[in-house]
């Protein structure tokens, strides 16, 4: 991995974009990584495919119904 802070920032941005399913932006970030001499990670899933949750979020509560 490079010590370049720009490459590190692009890699963080890329991960968020992959999770959100923004394939066009992932491609743009990959291009910028290549221009800086870094190889975009091969995360094993298509760029437009968001990561799936293995379990639902915990600690969520539903609000009680308001009465007038």
Task: Describe the secondary structure blueprint for this structure.
Blueprint: H1 5-20, H2 23-35
Helix pairs in contact: 1-2
User: Roughly how many Å is the radius of gyration?
Assistant: 18 Å
Helix content: 40-55%
Overall geometry comes to: elongated
Oligomer state equals single chain
Class from helix and strand fractions: mainly alpha
How far apart are the termini?
59 Å
% residues in beta strands: under 5%
Instruction: Give the beta-strand count.
Output: 0
Mean pLDDT across all residues, rounded?
Answer: 80
Q: How can the largest sheet be summarized?
A: none
Unreliable residue runs: none
User: Could you state the order of secondary-structure elements as H and E?
Assistant: HH
Per DSSP, the total helix count is: 2
Features:
single chain; 68 residues; 0% strand
Describe this structure in words.
The protein is mostly helical. 43% of the residues lie in helices and 0% in strands. The protein contains 2 helices and no strands. It has helices spanning 5-20, 23-35. α1 runs antiparallel to α2. It is elongated. It starts with a helix and ends in a 33-residue tail after the last helix. The mean pLDDT is 80.
């Amino acid at each position: 991995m490079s010590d370049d802070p720009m490459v590190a920032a692009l890699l963080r941005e890329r991960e968020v974009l992959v999770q959100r399913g923004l394939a066009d932006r992932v491609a743009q970030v990959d291009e910028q990584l290549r221009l800086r001499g870094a190889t975009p990670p091969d995360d094993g899933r298509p760029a437009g495919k968001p990561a799936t949750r293995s379990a639902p979020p915990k600690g969520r509560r539903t609000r009680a119904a308001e009465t007038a």
